[in-house]
Amino acid sequence: MTHPPPPSTRSTRAPSSSLTAKDLLQSVAWYRDVLGFTVDNVRERDGKPAAASMRSGTAKIFLNQDDGGRGWERVKGEGFAITFDTAQDVDAIAARIKSKGWTLAMEPADMPWGVRMLRVLDPDGYRLGIWRPLST
Which of 15, 45, 53, 69 suits a disulfide with 40, CB 3.0-4.6 Å? Predict the structure, then answer.
């Protein structure tokens, strides 16, 4: 009889994130047009957009329409960041983001832990990082 490995040795393939959006279609357009994600699907509930799944490589983001139940002015993503590892040129990604009219939270910079990284906030204020190892 074989047993699964203990949780400390379990291997994860790729992370997925689920975020709420004040304006789902605006967020879908931002992830698609500014960051270059692909829209897998958009689901409706009662004839209105309710959720969308997006992907870039093996990374997936699930966007859900916020219902306002916790208040529209609440701060989202405080103390939370999603970082994407890429083989692409971080400076080129930064140029694309800026060409779409978006401001970077942090311009591309070499970090002491060996990556070149940028930071940007999505339309709901979620902090995103994109980095590439310097040795690649």
Answer: 53
Number of domains composing the chain: 1
**Using CA atoms in the order 124, 58, 99, 23, what is the torsion angle rounded to 10 degrees?**
-30
CATH of the domain at 61: 3.10.180.10
Give 114's DSSP letter. Answer: S
Which residues of the chain fall short of a pLDDT of 50? none
In the chain the first and final C-alpha atoms are separated, in Å, by 42
Domain that holds residue 56: 15-66+80-133
pLDDT at 10: 56
pLDDT of residue 77: 73
Q: Where are the beta strands (DSSP E) in 7-135?
A: 16-21, 38-45, 48-56, 59-65, 81-85, 104-110, 115-121, 127-133
How many other β-carbons are positioned within 10 Å of the β-carbon of residue 131? 21
